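Batch 3, record 17
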Amino acid sequence: MAPGASPPFLQACLRRPVPFTPIWLMRQAGRYMPEYRAVRARLGFLELCKSPEAAAEVTLQPVERLGVDAAILFADILLVLEPLGVGLEFTRGDGPRIGRPVRSSQAARALPQIDVDDALGFVYETVARARKALADRVPLIGFAGAPFTLASYLIEGGPSREFLLTKAFMRREPEAWAIMMTRLADVTADYLNGQIGAGVQAVQLFDSWVGALSPADYRAYVLPHSRRVIRALRPGVPVIHFGVGTGGLLALMREAGGDVIGLDWRVELGPTWARLGQDVAVQGNLDPAVLLADVGAIRLAAREILDGAAGRPGHVFNLGHGVHKETPVEHVRALVDIVHEMSAR
Amino acid sequence: MAPGASPPFLQACLRRPVPFTPIWLMRQAGRYMPEYRAVRARLGFLELCKSPEAAAEVTLQPVERLGVDAAILFADILLVLEPLGVGLEFTRGDGPRIGRPVRSSQAARALPQIDVDDALGFVYETVARARKALADRVPLIGFAGAPFTLASYLIEGGPSREFLLTKAFMRREPEAWAIMMTRLADVTADYLNGQIGAGVQAVQLFDSWVGALSPADYRAYVLPHSRRVIRALRPGVPVIHFGVGTGGLLALMREAGGDVIGLDWRVELGPTWARLGQDVAVQGNLDPAVLLADVGAIRLAAREILDGAAGRPGHVFNLGHGVHKETPVEHVRALVDIVHEMSAR
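Prediction for the assembled complex:
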């Protein structure tokens, strides 16, 4: 795009009119893409995250291959846990593991102060490189995990379905919980501000697993800490606030903050946006499973979402969660084209 | 209770005033209970389901131990799949497995007509025995899996997180999907009617995993079939319609049918009931994880739910999903007492 013109993605985040609905996809750089797999054949996941040159290359792949309207930094929400000294590992197949999970009030209180800028400088270097390589073609999004989602990994020791240990901890040790959440909020804010300093033009706060909570628990145990992160961010950079299965929490997530609220596919975009109020932007919300069907199905589902948004300023098209690794690349490309064509004004 | 008096649980299902809010708990007979574990030390899971004497005994255990206001038949939603000849097994630890999953249009169309009354006569015998043993102390609830949830096991071959095969199947093979769902709906209706004939006084339709779908997909691929089940049921027996993570689907589930809509803890009971309309009863919606905390937390959370219901006729107290196996029995007992005390009118 022409230098100086404001990119549609950033305009949409700020609820300004755009020539077409911008689209990017969570996990748009990932295993479904041959060029990503080629890089991963050389580098392990953590190694890739820590190689700014390769991570920047992977960040740009979907921009070149798919024509999406934003790039998102290639990194992982759990990188920030590594300097906390809890023994983070990415195992093949089983996903992330925390070697020394936080299971006591003492352990929660003992999480060290860390200098994220020092510990995660490699991420900022990826940001700088990716931003330079993008040369203003599309904006670059940074991201971090929200305190609840980070805490859930710290406590469970890995992915979880029920989050029983996390829920028990927050109820039994409310003070230690609050201390840990405040620590995580501050680390997260520093980390996102560092990314902004390095050049990202928007940030997404991933509270991926917060949908496991009841609204009352979200309000008591999570909202103040997510709000703390968002309030501490440098102004002028749009914030997207996202979680999965959050239909019952969206109004509270909005209360916690964010210029854009991310929706998953389990809610209808139109009525949900109306309930949230039109003074906030929304992002979403195609079921990533639709991309495994055929182009006809993709077209139909995209139509429904765009109809729900009714051309109102403030809609960023996305999936309701990340691209599945089984997804054909040509279906993802087709989705990007379909959204651009259908929404052209 | 006195013979002839109408039990609070059934009254609440019909939105009639009750002296206190009735409560029962999904998976109230289960591994968290020593007397259940004692029975399981003798009998495998499937063996227990097929032993009417033991299954009836297990059905009554929570009534005796907890003082709940309804018993629920001890059985499994997948039993109905066994006579379909797909190779159902319950493995230790991994849960149910379907040896010959349905992966093609042909396989879906080839599901045999079965005589459920013949194949599942042992369930009806459990019903008759449990009903007799209850001697009208509390009503007996029957249940079955809803067509979507059954189809998802048939296609995935076991439990799933993403339901990618199921979603791909319904989109790629809509005709075979409809044929299979119709077959499952008819089998389910026959099975529930058989349970009613044998003596259950209410039924719950478990569409446990339907929360994985978008509202548009629910409407297109599920609603007509769940409605078919509910419309085919013998009149006069309240129907509870339940799924997990269904915040965005509740209005559509209501449209499909049911006297009582089951809510999980991810939605707030008060506003959700108001949106559904007060001409339907609701059941729920405590997060089962709360039972792992302490009695103070349980009291607080129960209070919140009862306040949400505001004493309106038509609330059955329950969890938002099944009791976790790690739950202390005395916490479950405490919950039952707390709900009875707090709601006494």
